[in-house]
Fold each of these.
Amino acid sequence: AASSGTGFFVSSSGHIVSNFHVIDGCSKVKLVYNDKEIDTETLAVDKINDLAILKVNIKPKKVYAVSTEDVKLLEDEDVIVAGYPLGKNISEAIKASSGTITALAGVGDNYSEFQTDAALNSGNSGGPILDKKGNVIGVAVSKIQAEGVEGFNFGIKSSVLRIFANANNIKLLPQNNRSMNKDQLRELITNATVYLDCWMTGKKLKEMLAENQNSKKAFYSQF
């Protein structure tokens, strides 16, 4: 295992969404679910928008609904980012942070993305950004890493995810219209968000480390 990322279930048939850069260069991708490592199959990738759809042969306990509406600037409610920042360097427990929507475009006026001040770190990539109703409003994708820069974190908009899922015949759940309490959100986040391990050959790992000094991949610290 060379690097890690996050994914989340979007169907009861075992379809998982993540970032393309999380699985890029991997000879295989394994998810950790209920303390078991399970091989995944890559069904589709969108390199432009940095998305990927994976499949596992299990029935998840919980599945995320995807919002039918894109985010608005300074939403009335905080958004929640769930995932596995810094991989197993800190712990294997899922982590969550909250914040607001601070811009409706990403770097270079990329309107397929939005900006949030909710904390994102290496390993969060591919994880869900959700509202208090438990709807995925975005997919965590990147942050600006520079001295003195904070809160410049980005997500892929739900409309982009819905187009990608529909194009690959993934039937998404209806949007939730009622707010969830903390226990319901905790159960959803814990059971519908997964840890992803990217396995590489030594040759491929050396190539990626040599060629991609600015890679978004969350390589394990020993590399």
Note: The helical segments are 20-23, 158-167, 182-192, 202-211.
Amino acid sequence: MFSSKNNYVLKTLVLISILLVGCSASKPVPSVQVVEAPKNEERPDWIYTDVSNEDGQLSFVGLSNVHSSEKNARNDARMDATNNAVQYLGTMATFKFEELSVSYGLSSEIVDPTESSQKFQKQIADNVARRLKTKKWHMEREKIKGELGYKYFVLAVIPNSTIENSFKKSLDNNIEEQQKELKSAATEKAKTQAEQAIEMFRKAKKEGLMN
């Protein structure tokens, strides 16, 4: 038979076991935390302006995708603004060349407005990338793969003088090409067309792109 002391120890151990089991059973299961995007600030008005020309500068808006890195989001927004600038200026150049080609009666075989504008886009692309200055930023938070990411808007500007210089350099290349055509012209018609093309490009250079 157990002594009263042994009975006391046994009862104590049983009681402790019951308490431990009860505590373990009642311990709450950790809940899964759901990431929620914070309330973003109201978007500024400049976000909704595609292009503006003020104080001798053209401004463009760029928008990034959602990135986990804030730095990548800013770089993405700036790249988007750069691409928007190049495409916009390329379209302007196309219209300019189309208008002049019609006025000079030049066919697309002599001067292709699309080809001429593409040459200009290549000319200006590097200058836009180097000279485009960021003016304003707007940041928002959105979910990306269950985590909070960054999305940026940027307002960037480029001087009109940079655009005009690139346009003139591109036209110099066109004039040089037509001068080669003039030298190798086998007929009077070909010679006349080359001379008209040269005159057209010189006129475009004098007028500039922004006028």
Note: The radius of gyration is 35 Å.
